[in-house]
Amino acid sequence: xxxxxxxxxxxxxxxNEDGYKVFTEKYHLKRGYCCKSGCKHCPYGYDKKTDTLK
Length: 54
Description:
Strand content: 15-25%
Radius of gyration: 12 Å
Strand order of the largest sheet: 1-2
């Protein structure tokens, strides 16, 4: 299924101390679904250890 590209805004992500891009809760909500990757700021409550949404 094709998903349209989401234009990034400055507060959609930041770079951590290792230089990786970290998406914010705002970005995840804008995207509209959980990718089940265990994202640091997941607003959907996904737990990667149990593979469940809270």
